[in-house]
Every structure is written in structure tokens, then in C-alpha cells.
Write the C-alpha cells for this entry.
Amino acid sequence: MALLVRDMLSLPVAQTFRLVAGEGGLNNQVRYVNLLDFEYDMAELGTKGSKGMFNAQSFIVTSLQFAKHDFNRILPAFQQLKRDGVSAIAVKEVYFQTLPAKVVQFANENNIAVFLFASEKNYLEDVVVGMAIALDESENFLALSEKVGQLLTLEENSTQLFRVVHDLFGKIPDCYFCMYMIPIRIMSSYEYQFFIQTMRRRAEKDTIVLPHEYGGLLVLPKQTTSASVCSFFGLSPKEYTIGISRQSSTAEKFIHRIRECIFAGHHGALHGIREINFDEMGIYQILEPTWAVIGSRATAAAF
């Protein structure tokens, strides 16, 4: 669920970015964002002081201030950034409205996405902060999604499983009903995060929304219809595959109901069924949980 360079372009702070080189780098992963202005203001680039200054997979934001009196300093700086393993570079149009041809060629050859953006609409610090927040949220989403995945694979009644349940839910609801919604349209990482964030903001106090494998896991306090849920969240049922669990009011069935809706959702997506209740899966109630890549060790007796 790591963000890609192309995902960063969906952020509000990147709305004025225009790609000028390195289109092949749009699928580079981004893990860090860094500000570059004075770091290369030295006599010789490539000296010990400039080596390894940035993390690999960084998105660099700069005005190229260090080169404002000598554009020939840009290419050596980009070469150093390539050695650092950066993913992309965004240049604010303060000192340069275009980049030297050799710099563009270098970025194209090395798949480093390079952007220019208007100077009057964005402060460098605002761009860095906006991107950093998105990256932090991405890491949180990844951690949550991984924990939900553990609900499907950990041994029944294990200490580790109970710990994961506590981390995700605090305590098991007295009554619950689960849905798993898989968008039919492939979303970018940023779009997916926005989808989950929107649902979490709109959810009522006793409804839990969690990310899992580019779908949304919902734990609801009572049984309802998918149409009602979609209407509440402002979603179109036609745009999702929806797996639905049975309802329960006992703590020992909580994990089973989560597994049911996820198995049903994957079964529906595999067979082109837009909405499917676990009860409607027939023989797949036994086969699907043990066969699916999801990896549950549940058996028919567990349900």
C-alpha cells in the first residue's frame, strides 16, 4: 500500500505540479519527503559533505536556490540525488521556469520523475508538510490492514489473536454484523485511503471501518442491508462487491463473522457477484476459507 509518485499528484498541495521529465518514474515508491535548498551550496558537489544526504525513495522538494547563480550546478546535484536513490524531484519556479536539456535527459534516462510548480501558489514548507502527512497516513493504513489480515490467519484462541482484536476494536461489541466492500474500479493508494478516511469520518460512533486489501471492512451494531449502508455513506452499490456475514451476539463468533464477510466478498469478486451473503455460498462455506489465498485455517466446524 506504499504510495507511488503518481499518487502524490492527487494531493491538494501537488495540484499545480506538471511533469517535465522522467515519466518512467511515476511508479516509483515514495517513503520520505525532504526539502532541498542550501544543502548543495558548496564548492564541489559529490564531496563527502553532499554524499548520502537523502534517504532512498524520497520525494525532493526544492527551489534550486543553490544553483540560482549557476545553472550548471543542477545536473551534478541531480546526479547526487540519483546516487541517493530518490524517487522524484519537484522544483518550485522561483529561479528556474525550465530546466537545462541535459538535466531533462538525465532524469528521463534514470526514471526520476521531475516536476515544476508555480511559485505564487505554494510555499515549499506547505508542500513538504502536506506530503509528509499523506505518507504518515499511508503507514498507518498499512499497519491497520496488516492487523486485519492477521485476523484471518492466526490460530483460534491464541494470545496473539486476542491482542490483535484488542488493538483493532478495544472490546468486542455486544451485537455485531460485518460487511466487506471491495471497489470494482481499481483505485490508486491515495484514492483508497481517501475512500476509507471518508467512511471513517462519516461512520456512526458504534460502527467500525477498517482497511483491508483495498477494500473496506465494516463492523456494524445491527443487521442491515447493503443498500442502506451505501446510502448512509453516499456510495453506489453498483460500484462495489459486497460480502455479508451472519449476525452474532456472542464474543466467540466475532472472528468468524469477520472472516465470513471477507470470504464472501472475495468469492463475489471472483465470480462476478455484486452482493453475496455468506449463507448463500453453499459448499463454498467449507471450501472457500481453506482454499482462498486469504489463508484462514477455519473449517466448517468453526462456523
